[in-house]
Amino acid sequence: MRQIGRFLMGLLIGWVVGSLVGLLLAPAPGPSTQQRIVQAYQKFLNDIREAALARRRELEQELERLRKGGSIQSVL
Length: 76
Fold this sequence. Notes:
Helix content: over 70%
Shape: elongated
Number of strands: 0
Largest sheet: none
Distance between the termini: 6 Å
Order of helices and strands: HH
Radius of gyration: 18 Å
């Protein structure tokens, strides 16, 4: 499970870096490029928030299961 998490984190970081480099090197006027960067940043933050909420829900479900007497599973 850790390998999947590391892979996804690498994929996310690669996406962010690639997007920013692509935006910065694109032949577009300054204000247009700035707007695109801001939009990409906002999308990135929203994606992170959604991923964090999904993970929180998973952990809360696991905690509830453990409180009901379940056994510990690999959460990470």
